[in-house]
Every structure is written in C-alpha cells, then in structure tokens.
Amino acid sequence: MSRLDPLALECLLPLLEESLTPLLPVRVRVTTEREDALPLCQNGEPVAGIRIEDGDLSQEEISRWSVAVRALAQEIFDRLLREKTLAGYPGVGLLTKMLEKGPLSGLLLRLSSPPFPERAFRLAPKTFFLPDGGKDYLLKLWRGGETFVSASIRLESPEEVEESVSLLELAELFGFSWLSGKAARYLAELGLSEDVLTVLKTLRALNRKGHTLVLAEGPAPSLHCLRNKAKTHLFLTEERAFFALEMQPQEAAELLTDLHLRAGLIEGRHGECALVAVWAAFEHARRLAEERTVFFEPYSLHALGDVYFDLGDLGAAKRAYFFALDGTAQPVDLLNSLALVMIQLGDRQAARFFLTQATQEDPNDPLLHYNLALFLEEEGKAEALSHFRRAYKLAPAEPLYAEALAKRLAKEGLWSEIIEILEGKDLGAEGYYLLAKAHYETGNLEKALGLFKKTLDLAPQHRLALAHLALLFIQLKGEYSLAEAVLPEIEDAEGELGELAQDLKILVEGTT
Q1: H or E element at residue 8
Q2: Rounded-to-integer distance, Cα 131 and Cα 408, Å
C-alpha cells in the first residue's frame, strides 16, 4: 500500500473515532500524537494513536480493554483505508464527506507522472483536487517543465465532484495548463463551456479526416449562410461559431471574405491540437483592424501566448511563445514577453537573456532598455544605469523614463542632473518628490517647499515628502506644528525616513 498522505490521515481519524464510539463501552480519542497511546498502523508503521479516556475506569481496567480497543480500531482503520483512500490519498468519498460541511475552493489537477502533490484528494489515478488553491504547486510544475492540465474550481456540493472533471477536458482541448477563474470567464464570453465538449470533439475528429476547421465571427446572416455549407457547426454566440467545411482552405478563405467574416482557419489533418490552432488563428485575426481570414501561422501562437499570459497561465504562455519564436511578425515584442514569463517563473538567467536579445534586436526602443534596466536594478547590477540613461535619451519627453533615471541617479546623489532631467515635465508624485528633494539637497529650499506640497497633493500619504515639508516649515517659517503632528507617525521608522524623524525630533525638543 502507498504511503499515507497527511491529508488522508486528517480526514480518516475523525471517521475512525466516529465509527468506534457506538461500538465500545469506553470513551476513546484518536489522535496524531502517538506518545503514551495505543499505536494505529499503516503498512506496519505507526501513524496515529488511540487513547482510552474514561475517568470511571481504573488503570487495570484500561489495560484490560487496550488489546480489544486497539484490535477493533485497527480493523476499522484498515477498512477505511481500503474504502476511502486511493493510493494513499483521500478519495472521492472523503471529499464528498468534507463538502457536507460547506463549499471548497481549490485546484483540480490532472498530472501524468510524479511529482504528485501532497495534501490533495485523489479523484482518479491521475486526477487530484488540492483544497488550498495550489498556486505554489503550479509554479513548481511550470518550473519543472511538467505536462499537466488544471483548473481553479469551487465545489458547492458532493454532486459537483465528478461533474467538475469535465472542466479539465475543456482546458486541455484549448491548450491550457491552468484554467484560472479569469480564464474560465474568458472562455465563457467566447461561448465555450463543458456543455459543448461533445461537438468540439466532433469538430476535431472531422479535422483529422481532412475537413477545414474555421472559427468565425461576424453578422449572424453570414454565419448562417456558412452553416449551410458545413459538415458540422457549433454556434457559440449569435455572432461567433465553429465550422468543419468539406472544401480546400483557400476556397474556404475566399468564401469567408465574401461573407465579411473575421476568422481563424486551419487545414485538414492538423493533429491533436487542431482546436488550439484554430483558436490561435482566430485570436490573431481579432488583432487586425480589418475583417479578414487568418491562416494559422507562428505569429498566431504569439497572439495566443499573449492571451494565455493575460489569463495567468504561465506554462501555456511559455509554450506558445517558444513555438512562435521562429516565425513571429513581432520578434522584439515576443522576446520581451518571454522575459516577463521567465521573471514570474523565477528563471532570471533566461529572463536576462531574452531582455538582452530584445535590446539587440531593436536598440532604439526605449521600453526595452527600461525593462532591462529594471531587471538589472533588481539584481543590483551597476550596468542598470546605462540602460536607464539609454531609455531616457531615446524618449526624453516621456516622464516614465525620466523618473526612472532620476530615481537611479538619486542613489548616486547626482541632484543637479536630476533637476535637469525632471524640470518642466508633467510628473507623477514620485517624480515631483525626486525633483523637490534635488532642489532641497542643492539648497533651493523655497522651490523644494512648493514641490513637496505638489507631491502631497498627488499622494497625501507620502511620508518622506511630509517629513521634508515639516523640516522646511521649521527652517523657512519657524513653524513647529506640522513637525509635532508628523513625529508620532514616523519616529520608529528606519532608513531615510528614520533619519528625517531624528532631525525633526532634535529640532522639536530644542524648543521645549
């Protein structure tokens, strides 16, 4: 028998105690604490303990009952293991028992091979439900390159357990590794749900036999006209539908154009991923300004990767982006997107490679230099400054790059340069704070006063600006009231704010 999962033990022990109580004339408690308790074993190894807790019994009577209690408890425990667990995991029966207490939210997962999760219900040999959400486990699987499909679900009743597994089939048909709540809503808006699984599989089977597969959007009369020429169709909404057509792809494309439909199209015998491919071509077509038919191509996977990424599926996004690398129409954008995926997956080496590649592909794109600079700054690399400077040089009027460079220069104490960069620009709160501090540090206190006030207009809770303003009120106006009000809020702060608090405290205490 497989090793017992900790969650299985947690679920089984209350059931065991519940089963024992009416059968014994003595009170017992089943616990995971094994010290000074009768051992309860699985595969010959103690996993829990049984205590006789009956104050009316003498020690001799407890000892006499111990053999019978342990034997009965072990027999019932073994039966529960057989009936309620699957390969060491709590099974469907235990999950439905738990659902009697109330709804459960978590991750439904189908995984072909280990590493299998811990603290999960096993609904079938390769299907699990993780009641805690499982986001950390998802990251582990993505980082390990595992093949799996999963969906975030909420189970309201025992009847929904088996029904929920069909959601995995929908996710798998459309290439997801994780169907988040956001992703499920996105598919629902397209008109895709578990209710249409049978027709979707029929469409895929017809494509295997040579039918051209189309996902089209447009006027309802045009779609109904196309329906008359289709072997099978599936209307998702009044203005969106799938079609399996017995015609050559080019002929189908011409018909779609004549009908003024926006569509994705793949040729027959595309393979197991036919629905993913036609959806990718459709998402590609939706990006275009004009209505037209898009034949599936590598850039289609780039477009679909962006959809996966937006829906939180890092594994599917990474896979789509890699397949698109050899033929995307926007290689720089793709490299940048791959870097963002790798950052979230924790693969910083790969992220740096893709960001660097992107800047080499298009050295005049300020956003690429800005993204690389932020990445290098997080790693504490001095070369971040050169990329901040490059981004600003390429787009000096853009506050985003000006503020980013100023923030980096502030670490070097280059206040005069900060003033040159930020002066006269329409800034955000952080930009005005940096400009105010630059004037403060270079001795232009009146100018700094006005800019700190502007910072607080945009961000009233900006504590650094507030502390500086309190200092300036003392230095320029001899007013201590703001400092006295601010000090209790910041006197225990650390870093720069802590230093300002000490300056204010010295000045305030000097007046008393």
Answers
A1: helix 6-20
A2: 44
DSSP line for 73-112: HHHHHHHHHHHHEETTEE-HHHHHHHHTTS-EEEEEEEES
Q: How far is CA 140 from CA 137, 229, 246, 345, 395, in A?
A: 5, 47, 44, 9, 39
SS3 408: helix
The strand pairing partners of 108, in sequence order, are 129, 151
String of b and e for 211-243 (b: at least 16 CB within 10 Å)? Answer: bbbbbbbbeeebbeebeeebebbbbbeebbbbb
Query: Helix 160-173 crosses helix 92-99 at what angle (to 10 degrees)?
Result: 110
As a whole number of angstroms, the distance between CA 438 and CA 435 comes to 5
Q: Is the pTM of this model over 0.90?
A: no
What pLDDT does residue 512 have? 58
CATH 3.30.70.270 residue spans of the chain: 194-296
Taking 3-state DSSP, the helix, strand and coil percentages for the chain, each rounded to the nearest 5, stand at 60, 15, 25
Q: What is the pLDDT of residues 233-251, one digit of tens each?
A: 999 999 999 999 999 999 9
> Which CATH number among 3.30.420.40, 3.30.70.270, 3.40.50.720, 3.40.50.150 corresponds to the domain 194-296?
3.30.70.270
Give the whole-angstrom CA distance, residue 422 versus residue 405: 10
